[in-house]
User: Which sequence fits this backbone?
């Protein structure tokens, strides 16, 4: 089969832009650069109240993307829940994540699933449907080992991890380390930006924390910084341009990235491409596939004092921070798109 016309499936949450959205757009760009004819198909998704989850999954199941305007579509690439419910004889899934609140987040503060008859029934139904829909895939891949492990644990399905670089990879560069550590990403409870802020109470007062990003928890973490007397040492930059972000990476002492059970996390690879060490936590998920403790960064307990100790160690030993950054760069530059595209479509 000669694959030329490809649809990339995107689950759209209106007004939200994060790593998943960046991945879909960059995947399309990389396919076009390799002379595929590519279209992106997006369907809005709403997960609350819970009664909306299955109808939104059913919306994808109603789609038949076998052909368009009388011409066949050679393959579709599904990404995250529920895009892999789509129908196509050559469906490939490159899984970002499933509906996490019903999976590994269930029973934590980051999930609204409770031990009620309704929630247990919905969770069981989602797991069964996921298995059925994913088994239709001609190729089943994940964006990280962490995602593959979840798929095996909860659905009994094996998948191959395919790592890909950030869309900023070619533009990132190193610069002299300044007197700040950087936090990048959506400001949501699961990203634990509050942990980085609390750590600043124990960090050398000459070091500041710059936070780039927006999210539903922005006002909460603003108040936290003020209540802790950190208003002059924690800066909220909001949504910034790529150019601004690139320069922030270049001038950072280190990047603090401590989400809970992250799927992948572009921040890790972006930091390394800018030759900056990464401080992450034992339970941060995806970053642990790249960060090596005391080699290209630090892996610590998800506690403010432990996080602060890592920052202080790097602030007191700039040569060590630089060496960590170089080691991180060596790790990140090995991640390319060529192998990803070949594995996704080469077997069809």
Assistant:
């Amino acid at each position: 089969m000669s694959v030329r016309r490809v649809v990339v499936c995107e689950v759209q949450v209106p007004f939200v832009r994060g790593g998943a959205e960046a991945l879909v757009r960059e995947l399309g760009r990389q396919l076009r650069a390799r002379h595929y004819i590519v279209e992106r198909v997006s369907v809005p998704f709403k997960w609350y109240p819970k009664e909306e989850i299955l109808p939104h999954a059913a919306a994808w199941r109603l789609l038949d993307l076998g052909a368009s305007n009388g011409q066949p579509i050679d393959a579709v690439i599904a990404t995250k829940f529920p895009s892999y419910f789509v129908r196509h004889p050559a469906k490939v899934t490159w899984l970002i994540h499933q509906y996490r609140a019903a999976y590994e987040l269930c029973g934590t503060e980051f999930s609204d699933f409770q031990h009620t008859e309704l929630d247990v029934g919905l969770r069981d139904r989602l797991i069964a449907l996921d298995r059925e829909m994913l088994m239709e895939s001609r190729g089943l891949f994940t964006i990280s080992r962490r995602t593959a492990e979840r798929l095996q644990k909860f659905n009994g399905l094996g998948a191959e991890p395919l790592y890909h670089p950030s869309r900023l990879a070619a533009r990132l560069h190193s610069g002299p380390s300044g007197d700040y550590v950087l936090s990048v990403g959506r400001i949501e409870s699961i990203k634990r930006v509050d942990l980085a802020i609390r750590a600043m109470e124990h960090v050398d007062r000459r070091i500041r924390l710059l936070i780039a990003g927006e999210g539903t928890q922005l006002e909460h973490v603003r108040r936290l910084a003020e209540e802790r007397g950190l208003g002059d040492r924690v800066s909220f930059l909001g949504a910034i341009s790529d150019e601004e972000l690139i320069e922030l990476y270049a001038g950072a002492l280190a990047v603090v990235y401590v989400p809970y059970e992250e799927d992948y996390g572009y921040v890790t690879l972006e930091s390394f491409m800018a030759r900056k060490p990464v401080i992450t936590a034992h339970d941060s998920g995806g970053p642990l596939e790249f960060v090596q403790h005391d080699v290209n960064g630090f892996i610590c307990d998800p506690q403010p004092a432990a996080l602060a100790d890592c920052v202080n160690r790097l602030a007191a030993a700039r040569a060590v921070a630089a060496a960590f950054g170089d080691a991180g760069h060596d790790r990140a530059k090995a991640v390319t798109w060529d192998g990803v595209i070949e594995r996704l479509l080469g077997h069809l």
